């Protein structure tokens, strides 16, 4: 496989991560000091690829504005998937930009270049029509389980419940162009064309699907609290998964305490007597006020934390303002996602983009506040507050 | 980010024109210095800091004839782009010229070694080690191709490199982790960082792979792999529109640039505003100049002129006598200057002829001059006593958007730096501004409002105080890209004449912000137009306050009153954009207009 094009899928919303995805798709959620999609792009570029198509759809301007026409000097071509009708449908959106064997990676999972390289090498050295990147994981029940016999993929099961020897589908694929036809022919599932269904078709017809196990880095956030775990892993690795972490340009007052590990993007400020860390990621232009305590939090771009606020186990969206004296004591708590209650999850609170907390607010663990909402001063917030513009009494 | 181009052809076509054309198409990768080299028995190199236009004027119609040539365009973020630092770079004897995109990581060690061996360097770049290495190997009687290969063995890093050698009649090029693509057009061959550079000429391309070495000669193209074996790489056909490249998936550069404003604002204040220390640091604006400053005269044209109106108002409020002048009128008016007068020229490109002329007049009259510009090393930046960069990044759309936001923020920062004492609420607000611009972008209903109002006879924009320049800029944007009639007025002036034009077919866009007193006065002006049946669009940070008065509301978040104009202006940009879009106008290239006007 010589100099293939990489198709990076960045069109999906990530419904289970609402309301964080109110204004941006899942690939743009924070993972360390940058959005998730940058990890995917780093991985393909570090694996030597210089032709990249980014498939965008849901809230696409956010991806396009952030990445721009080039990433690390590699030109990016954008393909638009107007309606998000599945991963296979997204790959079809990129078809006109692909004219030979190509690579597909999910733009909403954190990976490193080893998986990409392993898949490229395995694909080049066989005559497979498709090669899947696989990982050894104890629990694959939330993901695609792949059964492999001597390198040949025999079955893919979404969310397997039995105890066969599954590998986890890493969402990194090398394909021959035959896959486009297979995607079109595969039977849609709930109205969606999926990559895995096309692969199943190829397994049945051609017996030419290979799987390669990789020990590269891989992390995914399905639910909001997963973002804290992903961040923790990245922080422990010192920032980017496989690039030397960008040197934090963070201004810290002499009396403030930074408890490692933390990672910070540019333009951050930490005020007098504040305590930041451990396990905190600070996005660009984040401001931590005097005496604030921030522990195990994802703090996104342009966030301002007021004086004397205490934030533990929080996922804080872009441009959020936390008022003075607000307290989030941290998890575990019960979190509602869609109609299901997930009990005892380690999530102090989740703030959608640009929530304005007016200060002195207490959050019951597991609280969720929708993007752009105003939280009244001195109120107590619990449960899921979506489509509510003013929270608290 | 940089762009490179190369050309080899048996035709006698002037190589200079072909290279310039290609560089123009790579401008989206940056344009603050440019250069080219044409090789015959000797090598001719032309390079200049500044936009491509300054390279073109250097050439001034010189027919650069040659069958092979290379070129480079650059956008630097660190250090000034000077003529010396522009590519191509040459060896001591001028036998070799090299263009490079990427970074040579072991340049320092190589440079020390080459200096030791007697080589003389002219630039601060990492690139320059490449021509000197080539020279070193050529002096050992290696062929150009062998010398190129030996050079590559010595350098580390990521790069795309193209080199020409006097008398060799070929380009030698390679890539490693940086893009390089070849274009095939009969016996003519191109190479470039990206396809659009030559897509007008050919759609048949070869994507080079890492470590492959190519020799481009007229009528001959040889590609070798890392081991030196000749390979036949596949030729691919391009079927997409070159116009789309660089737009990051947006339909127009203008919309792309509107959406880049949160980032532009962050860059404009980066390292300058410290909330923690309560300080503003503008190292480019010398303290001595600040201390001697008694009064300020601003000069600018078009959108930049409106920025100067805003800047002057900010300074006046802080007790500094300040006036804004249309640059082309400044010399005619013979505005008096005296000791302590600082003349500030605001120009996106730094090449605007009218603004340069005004600055030269001021300089001649003995005034101190300051450039506020987006282009590092531009004429304005070089000719003025000092320069503050607005750091908006490359702006391609003819209608200025993000550069105006960056000018506003930079001028607000300068004004604050000139004021005594710290203004913490302002510093806090300026750090919160990017999120608020993002909020306007995420939630704007300007597209719906444009749909309601499109097809009107004319559009009027009114505002008071800091919103007056925004009204002028909003009207200019509307004129430029929709071709519809639009005018901006101070809200109070409406009743002194323009009101005669107001009908039920002339929407009035009112900027209703700026404190109770101003809001009340502006609202009474709004009632005047409402009585004539005009549809009213209120741009406001207090939607409840315009309830029952406005037909449409464009909301902005509350912020420091100095900074509200940044937010209201974004709504007007979107209103103009969507109106032009509905009218199907060529938004990025309006008729009769040029991005940077380099004639008086």
Write structural notes for this entry.
Chain A: This is Nucleotidyl transferase. Chain A: Residues 260-330 form the Mannose-1-phosphate guanyltransferase C-terminal domain. Chain A: Keywords: Nucleotidyltransferase, Transferase. The complex is a heterodimer of chains A (393) and B (600). Chain A is α/β, with parallel strands linked by helices. Chain A folds into 2 domains: 5-220, Spore Coat Polysaccharide Biosynthesis Protein SpsA, Chain A (Alpha-Beta Complex), CATH 3.90.550; 240-385, 3 Solenoid (UDP N-Acetylglucosamine Acyltransferase, domain 1), CATH 2.160.10. In chain A, strands 1, 4, 5, 6, 7, 9, 10, 11, 12 and 13 form a 10-stranded mixed β-sheet that branches. In chain A, strands 17-20-23-26-31-34-37 form a 7-stranded parallel β-sheet, with helices on one face. In chain A, helix 1 (36-46) crosses helix 4 and helix 5 packs across helix 6 (195-206). Chain A is elongated. Mean pLDDT of chain A is 91; it is low at 241-246. The two termini of chain B are 32 Å apart. Chain B contains 18 helices and 27 strands. In chain B, helix 9 (302-317) packs antiparallel against helix 16 (467-482) and helix 15 (446-453) crosses helix 18 (564-582). Chain B folds into 3 domains: 3-243, Glutamine Phosphoribosylpyrophosphate, subunit 1, domain 1, CATH 3.60.20; 247-255 and 268-438, Rossmann fold (3-Layer(aba) Sandwich); 444-587, Rossmann fold (3-Layer(aba) Sandwich), CATH 3.40.50.10490. In chain B, the strands form 5 sheets. An 8-stranded antiparallel β-sheet of chain B has the order 3-2-4-1-10-9-11-15, covered by helices on one side. A 7-stranded antiparallel β-sheet of chain B has the order 5-6-7-8-12-13-14. A 5-stranded parallel β-sheet of chain B has the order 19-18-20-21-22, sandwiched between helices. With 600 residues, chain B is an alpha/beta fold. The radius of gyration of chain B is 27 Å and the shape is elongated. At the A-B interface, helix 2 and strand 6 of A face helix 7 and helix 14 of B.
């Amino acid at each position: 496989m010589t100099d293939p094009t990489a198709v990076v899928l960045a069109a999906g919303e990530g419904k289970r991560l609402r309301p964080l995805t109110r204004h941006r798709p899942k690939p743009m959620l924070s993972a360390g000091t940058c959005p998730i999609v940058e990890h995917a792009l780093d991985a393909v570029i570090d694996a030597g690829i210089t032709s990249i198509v980014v498939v965008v759809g849901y809230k696409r301007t956010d991806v396009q504005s952030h990445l721009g026409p080039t990433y690390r000097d590699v030109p990016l071509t954008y393909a638009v998937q107007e309606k998000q009708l599945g991963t296979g449908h997204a790959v079809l959106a990129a078809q006109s930009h692909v004219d030979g064997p190509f690579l597909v990676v999910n733009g909403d999972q954190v990976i490193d270049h080893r998986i990409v390289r392993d898949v490229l090498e395995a694909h080049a050295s066989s005559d497979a029509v498709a090669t899947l990147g696989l990982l050894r994981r104890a629990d694959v029940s939330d993901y695609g389980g792949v059964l492999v016999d001597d390198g040949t993929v025999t079955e893919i099961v979404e969310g397997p419940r039995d105890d066969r020897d599954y590998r986890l589908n890493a969402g990194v694929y090398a394909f021959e162009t035959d896959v486009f036809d297979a995607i079109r022919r595969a039977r849609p599932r709930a109205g969606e064309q999926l990559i895995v269904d096309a692969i199943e078709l190829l397994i049945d017809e051609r017996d030419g699907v290979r799987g390669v196990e990789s020990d590269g880095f891989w992390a995914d956030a399905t639910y909001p609290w997963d973002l804290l775990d992903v961040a923790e892993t990245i922080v422990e690795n010192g920032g980017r998964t496989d690039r030397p972490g960008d040197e934090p340009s963070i201004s810290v007052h002499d009396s403030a305490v930074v408890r490692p590990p933390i990672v910070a993007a540019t333009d951050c400020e930490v005020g007098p007597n504040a305590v930041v860390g451990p396990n905190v990621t600070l996005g660009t232009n984040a401001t931590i006020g005097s005496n604030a305590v921030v522990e195990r939090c994802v703090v996104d771009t342009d966030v301002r934390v007021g004086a004397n606020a205490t934030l533990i186990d929080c996922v804080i969206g872009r441009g959020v303002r936390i008022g003075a004296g607000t307290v989030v004591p941290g998890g575990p708590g019960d979190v509602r996602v869609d109609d299901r209650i997930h009990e005892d999850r380690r999530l102090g609170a989740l703030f959608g983009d640009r929530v304005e907390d007016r200060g002195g607010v207490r959050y019951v663990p597991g609280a969720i506040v929708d993007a752009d909402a105003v939280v009244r001063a001195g109120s107590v917030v619990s449960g899921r507050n979506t489509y509510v513009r003013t929270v608290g009494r | 980010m940089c762009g490179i181009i190369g050309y080899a052809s048996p035709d006698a076509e002037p190589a200079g024109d072909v290279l310039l054309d290609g560089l123009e198409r790579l401008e989206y990768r940056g344009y603050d210095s440019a250069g080219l080299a044409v090789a015959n028995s000797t090598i001719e190199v032309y390079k200049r800091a500044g936009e491509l236009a300054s390279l073109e004027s250097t050439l001034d119609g010189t027919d650069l004839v040659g069958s092979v040539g290379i070129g480079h365009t650059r956008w630097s973020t660190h250090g000034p782009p000077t003529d010396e630092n522009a590519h191509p770079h040459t060896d001591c004897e001028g036998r070799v010229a090299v263009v490079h995109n990427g970074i040579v990581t072991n340049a320092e060690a190589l440079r020390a070694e080459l200096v030791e061996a007697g080589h003389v360097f002219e630039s601060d770049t990492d690139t320059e080690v490449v021509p000197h290495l080539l020279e070193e190997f050529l002096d050992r009687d290696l062929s150009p191709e062998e010398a190129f290969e030996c050079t590559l063995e010595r350098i580390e890093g990521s790069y795309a490199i193209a080199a020409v050698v006097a008398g060799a009649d070929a380009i030698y090029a390679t890539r490693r982790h940086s893009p390089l693509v070849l274009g095939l057009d009969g016996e003519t061959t191109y190479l470039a960082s990206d396809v659009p550079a030559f897509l007008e000429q050919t759609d048949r391309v070869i994507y080079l792979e890492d470590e492959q070495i190519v020799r481009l000669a007229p009528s001959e193209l040889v590609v070798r792999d890392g081991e030196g074996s000749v390979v036949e790489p596949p030729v691919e056909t391009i079927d997409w529109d070159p116009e789309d490249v660089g737009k990051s998936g947006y339909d127009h550069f203008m919309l792309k640039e509107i959406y880049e404003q949160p980032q532009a604002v962050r860059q404009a204040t980066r390292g300058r505003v410290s909330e923690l220390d309560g300080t503003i640091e503008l190292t480019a604006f010398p303290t001595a100049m600040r201390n001697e400053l008694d009064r300020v005269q601003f000069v600018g044209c078009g959108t930049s002129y409106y920025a100067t109106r805003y800047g002057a108002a900010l300074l006046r409020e802080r007790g500094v006598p300040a006036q804004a002048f249309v640059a082309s009128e400044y010399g005619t008016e013979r505005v008096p200057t005296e000791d302590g007068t600082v003349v500030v020229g605001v120009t996106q490109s730094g090449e605007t002829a009218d603004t340069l002329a005004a600055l030269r007049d001021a300089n001649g009259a003995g005034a101190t001059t300051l450039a506020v510009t987006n282009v590092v090393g531009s004429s304005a930046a070089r000719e003025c006593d000092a320069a503050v960069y607005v750091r908006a990044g490359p702006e391609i759309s003819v209608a200025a958007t993000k550069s105006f936001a960056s000018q506003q923020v930079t001028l607000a920062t300068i004004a604050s730096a000139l004021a005594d004492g710290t203004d913490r609420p302002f510093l806090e607000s300026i750090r919160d501004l990017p999120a608020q611009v993002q909020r306007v972008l995420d939630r704007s209903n300007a597209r719906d409002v444009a749909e309601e109002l499109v097809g009107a006879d004319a559009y009027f924009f009114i505002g008071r105080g800091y919103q007056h320049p925004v009204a002028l800029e909003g009207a200019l944007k509307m004129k430029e890209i929709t071709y519809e009639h639009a005018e901006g007025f101070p809200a109070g002036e409406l009743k002194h004449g323009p009101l005669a034009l107001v009908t039920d077919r002339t929407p009035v866009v009112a900027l209703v912000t700026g404190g109770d007193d101003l809001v009340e006065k502006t609202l009474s002006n709004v009632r005047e137009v409402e009585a004539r049946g005009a549809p009213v669009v209120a741009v406001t940070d207090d939607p409840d306050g315009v309830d029952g008065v406005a037909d449409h509301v464009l909301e902005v978040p509350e912020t420091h009153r100095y900074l509200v104009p940044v937010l209201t202006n974004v709504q007007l940009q979107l209103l103009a954009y969507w109106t032009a879009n509905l009218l199907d106008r060529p938004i990025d290239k309006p008729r009769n207009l040029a991005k940077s006007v380099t004639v008086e």
